[in-house]
Amino acid sequence: MEGKKAAERADRQSGFDYLKKHYVLYVLLAPALILTLIFKYGPMYGAVIAFKDFSPIKGIMGSEWVGFKHFDKFLSSPNFELILLNTLKLSAYGLLLGFPVPILLALMLNQVRRAAVKKNIQLFLYAPNFISVVVIVGMLFIFLSPTGPINQLIVWATGEPVMFMLKAEYFRWIYILSDIWTGAGWASIIYVAALANVDPELHNAASLDGANLLQRIRHIDLPTIRPIMAIVFILAAGGIMSIGFEKAYLMQTAMNLPTSEIIPTYVYKIGLQAGDYSYSAAVGLFNSVINVLLLITVNLVVKKLNEGEGLY
Predict the structure, then answer these.
(1) DSSP-based three-state secondary structure for 64
(2) By mean pLDDT, which of 81-95, 140-154, 271-285, 286-300 is the weakest?
(3) Which residues form the ABC transmembrane type-1 domain (predicted)?
(4) Taking the C-alpha atoms of 201, 203, 208 and 209 in order, what is their torsion angle to the nearest 10 degrees?
(5) Tell me, what's the pLDDT at 7?
(6) Phi and psi at residue 248, in whole multiples of 5°?
C-alpha cells in the first residue's frame, strides 16, 4: 500500500516537474484554450432552452421547463421527414461525389514535374475557395438564368431554355457541383503535402521493375495518403448533418423548396424569423446529436476497415 502511494507521489512530482520545465508551451496554449472554452463550450449552456418554453423576458432560468415537448413537436411535424431527407441527401451525395475529387487532383498534381507549371495550376484550382458564397450564388443565378450563357447554348440546341434555379430537381446537382468546383482544389492541399514526402527513389525503383503509372500510384502514393483519407472521411461523415446554411438559403426560391429546405435553413426561419427560440434550439440540438452519433459510428467502421487506424 505504501509502495503504491509512493509511486503516485512520484508520478505527481514528475508531472509537476514536466509542467515547470515546459511552462512556456502551456502559456502559448492558454489563449487558444481560453477562447475555445468561452466561444465553444460556454454557449452550450444555452442549449437548455430546447427543454424550456423560453421567454426573453423571463430568461433561461426563469422560463418554464417542458422536457422533450419541442423534440416531440419536431419529430411529429409533417415537415420532419422532408427536411431530414433533404439534409441527408444533400450531404451524403456531396460527400460521395466530392470526397474523391481532391484526391484525384492531388495525384494528378503530383505527376507535374515542372515547379512553375505546378504552381500556376494550383493557383487556378485554389482561387475559387476565396470567392464569397454570395458571389458564387450570384454567379450561379447569372450563368443559369433563362438568358444566361448556358441556356443560350441549350436554346440553340433544343429551342427552349431550362429553368435551373426554379425547378426542385436541379437544386441538389447545382449545389453539389458548385461546391466541388469551389472547394476541391483547396481540399487537395493536405494530400499534395502528404505526397510531397514520398521518396522519389521509390518511384524510380518501381519504374525500373516495370511498374506503370497506375501501378505506382496504387502501391506507393495511395498507401501514403490512406491515413489522411481515413481521417478526412471520418470528419466529413461525422459532419454530414452540418451542411452550410448560407449557400442553401441564398439558392432557395419558392419553387425549389421541396429539395432546398434543410435543417439549417429551417432552424433559421423558425428561430430568427418566427421567434420560436425553444423549438429552433431543439431542432438544432437534434441535428448536433445526430452528428455526434454519425462521427462515432463512422470512426468505428473506418477503424475496422483500415487496420485499426481512425480518428481516435
Answers:
(1) strand
(2) 286-300
(3) 84-298
(4) 120
(5) 54
(6) -60, -40
Q: Which amino acid belongs to residue 146?
A: P
What are the two backbone dihedrals, phi and then psi, of residue 162, each rounded to the nearest 5 degrees? -110, 130
Q: For residues 218 and 224, give the distance between their C-alpha atoms in angstroms, rounded to a whole number.
A: 10
One-letter amino acid of 264: P
CB 113 within 8 A of CB 293: no
Identify which of 151, 187, 194 has the alpha carbon closest to the alpha carbon of residue 170.
Answer: 151
Q: Which residues pair with 53 in a beta bridge?
A: 64
How far apart are alpha carbons 53 and 66 in whole angstroms?
Answer: 7
Distance CA 106, CA 99 (A): 12
Q: Which residues contact 172 (CB under 8 A, 6 or more apart)?
A: 89, 90, 93, 259
- Contact indicator for 268, 249 with CB cutoff of 8 Å: yes
Length of the chain: 312
Give the SS3 label for residue 277.
helix
As a whole number of angstroms, the distance between CA 286 and CA 283 comes to 5
- Quickly state the pLDDT bin for 220 (edges 50, 70, 90): confident
Contact (CB, 8 A) for 187 and 122: no
Q: CB atoms < 10 A from the CB of 229, how many?
A: 20
Please tell me whether the overall predicted TM-score, pTM, comes out greater than 0.70 for this model. yes
Q: Which residues contact 121 (CB under 8 A, 6 or more apart)?
A: 109, 112
In angstroms, the CA 109 to CA 193 distance is: 11
